[in-house]
């Protein structure tokens, strides 16, 4: 493809007679394309595209020349049966993508990676219910970037009533200062509406909330009211769905934040707990001040132990990179001190320990905060961190991370696919990884489990020289599982 892009050959479209096209492709051994032509309706033209000496069947459209295809990427390769029938030949399917600029291509690839990482439907995630956090607070205005649009005019269907309703919706958007656009051809059959389209963190747009004016349903229900002139009138119904489908909105929210939901979404931001009745008034005043600042806050004034109150209310555990408190960060009266050479100096007041650290031009480092009193040592903390990181890097270089790779088979896997999968098993074993061989049964195949066992035994025998069976084949639901591990090399 890179060579074709350099040549910048012109791509032209040609329409051929059906018989001529069939004869041409059969003459060059392209029987599949001849079969495709036979399936095209007789009233549709047969279009071919020519690029130099190369001619191919395609509906189009195409780029004007190959020079436009300088930015491309091959995504994956997969096998596919011709016409989706397993009785036919297995063909090779190549997936690719092409873009006008490298920036556009990179943005697209990043979007695919982020979409896969954020996919809330992934089956390889740990999901758990937590009763204290199983509620969501719906804000009237969100932090999403959004655009709003009104539907097409409905005067033709409903006359002046529809026109007035449409103008009312437009006026409401203008008064609230919302930017919007009129989307022609997207109106509902029963009346005008406002649609909210949300843009997520990776640039995708989702139709979400809607406010709809319905002229049809009240008349069908026979709903009426009496106006100021004692005349019977048919009311207009307003459909209000702020979040649209709630389940769909939650899925969008999870993907937008990659599972890390923002703190403002919590039903309650802060709970101020008092230790005793004497501090109840102060706790209430703190909670009131937090509310004035925009937090959803409350106070817990019950006569319970403070530890119980903390357990009952959700808290954030914020992990910091720093593992030790040093120097002025140590705010306790006294510590058990270890000297520069490792000698025990006994229990020392913190100001005295800091003075000793300054005298020796080192740091006072807390190494055992859980001890009573906490244990501190005089040391050069920068040098200590450097040596610790160096030890970790050396340990990491020596360790081998063994991964478990999965290769899936079927009782009826054909020989070609079997050999491809077997090569993958051998490659994973050669890389030092374990392999989980999964054989899945479908439908009536469960009645012939011996066929699946034969496949697993064949795999075991063919790779016995490079690996051993760590977990013998066992049935888990509708699948058999066997785990292979590399043989230990003789030292």
UniProtKB/TrEMBL annotation:
GO molecular function: ATP binding; threonine-tRNA ligase activity; translation initiation factor activity
InterPro entries (UniProt xref): aa-tRNA-synt_IIb (IPR002314), aa-tRNA-synth_II (IPR006195), aa-tRNA-synth_II/BPL/LPL (IPR045864), Anticodon-bd (IPR004154), Anticodon-bd_dom_sf (IPR036621), T_IF-3_C_sf (IPR036788), T_IF-3_N_sf (IPR036787), Thr-tRNA-ligase_IIa (IPR002320)
GO cellular-component term (any): cytosol
The entry's keywords: Aminoacyl-tRNA synthetase, ATP-binding, Initiation factor, Ligase, Nucleotide-binding, Protein biosynthesis
Keyword rRNA processing recorded: no
Span of domain Aminoacyl-transfer RNA synthetases class-II family profile: 23-262
A Pfam family: IF3_C
SUPFAM superfamilies: Class II aaRS ABD-related, Class II aaRS and biotin synthetases, ThrRS/AlaRS common domain, Translation initiation factor IF3, C-terminal domain, Translation initiation factor IF3, N-terminal domain
Reactions the enzyme catalyzes: tRNA(Thr) + L-threonine + ATP = L-threonyl-tRNA(Thr) + AMP + diphosphate + H(+)
GO biological process, alphabetically ordered: threonyl-tRNA aminoacylation
EC nos: 6.1.1.3
TM region(s), chain numbering: none
UniProt protein name: threonine--tRNA ligase
PROSITE patterns: AA_TRNA_LIGASE_II, IF3
Top-level lineage group: Eukaryota
Family from the record: Belongs to the IF-3 family. Belongs to the class-II aminoacyl-tRNA synthetase family.
Annotated Gene3D superfamilies: Anticodon-binding domain, Bira Bifunctional Protein, Domain 2, Threonyl-trna Synthetase, Chain A, domain 2, Translation initiation factor 3 (IF-3), C-terminal domain, Translation initiation factor 3 (IF-3), N-terminal domain
């Amino acid at each position: 493809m890179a060579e074709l892009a350099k040549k910048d050959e012109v791509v032209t479209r040609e329409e051929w007679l059906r018989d001529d096209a069939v004869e041409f492709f059969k003459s060059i051994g392209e029987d599949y394309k001849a079969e495709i032509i036979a399936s095209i309706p007789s009233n549709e033209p047969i279009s071919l595209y020519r690029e130099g000496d190369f001619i191919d069947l395609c509906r189009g459209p195409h780029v004007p020349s190959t020079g436009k295809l300088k930015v491309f990427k091959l995504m994956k390769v997969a096998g596919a049966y011709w016409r989706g029938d397993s009785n036919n030949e297995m063909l090779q399917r190549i997936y690719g993508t092409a873009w006008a600029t490298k920036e556009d291509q990179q943005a697209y690839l990043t979007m695919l990676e982020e979409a896969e990482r954020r996919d809330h439907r992934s089956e390889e995630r740990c999901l758990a219910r937590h009763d204290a956090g199983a509620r969501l607070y719906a804000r009237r205005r969100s932090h999403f970037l959004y655009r709003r649009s009104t539907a097409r005019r409905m005067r033709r269907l409903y006359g002046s009533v529809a026109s007035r309703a449409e103008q009312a919706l437009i006026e409401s958007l203008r008064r609230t200062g919302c930017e919007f656009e009129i989307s022609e051809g997207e109106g509902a059959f029963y009346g005008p509406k406002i649609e909210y389209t949300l843009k997520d963190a990776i640039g995708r747009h989702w139709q979400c909330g809607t406010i709809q004016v319905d002229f049809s349903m009240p008349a069908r229900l026979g709903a009426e009211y009496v106006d100021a002139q004692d005349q019977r009138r048919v009311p207009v119904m307003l459909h209000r769905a702020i979040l649209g489908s709630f389940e769909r909105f939650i899925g969008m929210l999870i993907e937008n934040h990659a599972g890390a939901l923002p703190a403002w979404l919590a039903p309650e931001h802060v709970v101020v707990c008092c230790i005793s009745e004497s501090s109840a008034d102060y706790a209430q005043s703190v909670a009131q001040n937090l509310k004035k600042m925009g937090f959803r806050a409350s106070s817990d004034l019950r006569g319970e132990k403070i530890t119980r109150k903390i357990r009952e209310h959700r808290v954030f555990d914020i992990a910091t990179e720093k593992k030790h408190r040093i120097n002025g960060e140590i705010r306790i009266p006294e510590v058990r001190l270890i000297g520069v050479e490792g000698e025990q100096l006994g229990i020392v007041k913190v100001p005295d320990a800091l003075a000793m650290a300054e005298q020796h031009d080192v740091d006072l480092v807390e190494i055992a905060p859980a001890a009573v009193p906490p244990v501190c040592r005089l040391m050069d903390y920068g040098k200590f961190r450097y040596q610790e990181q160096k030890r970790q890097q050396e340990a990491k270089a020596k360790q081998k991370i063994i991964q478990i790779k999965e290769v899936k088979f079927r009782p009826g896997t054909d020989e070609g696919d079997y050999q491809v999968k077997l090569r993958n098993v051998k490659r994973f074993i050669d890389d030092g990884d374990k392999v989980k061989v999964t054989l899945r049964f479908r439908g009536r195949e469960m009645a012939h489990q011996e066929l699946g066992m034969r496949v697993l035994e064949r795999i075991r025998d063919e790779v016995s020289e490079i690996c051993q069976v760590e977990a013998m084949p066992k049935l888990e639901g509708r699948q058999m599982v066997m785990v292979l591990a590399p043989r230990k090399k003789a030292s």
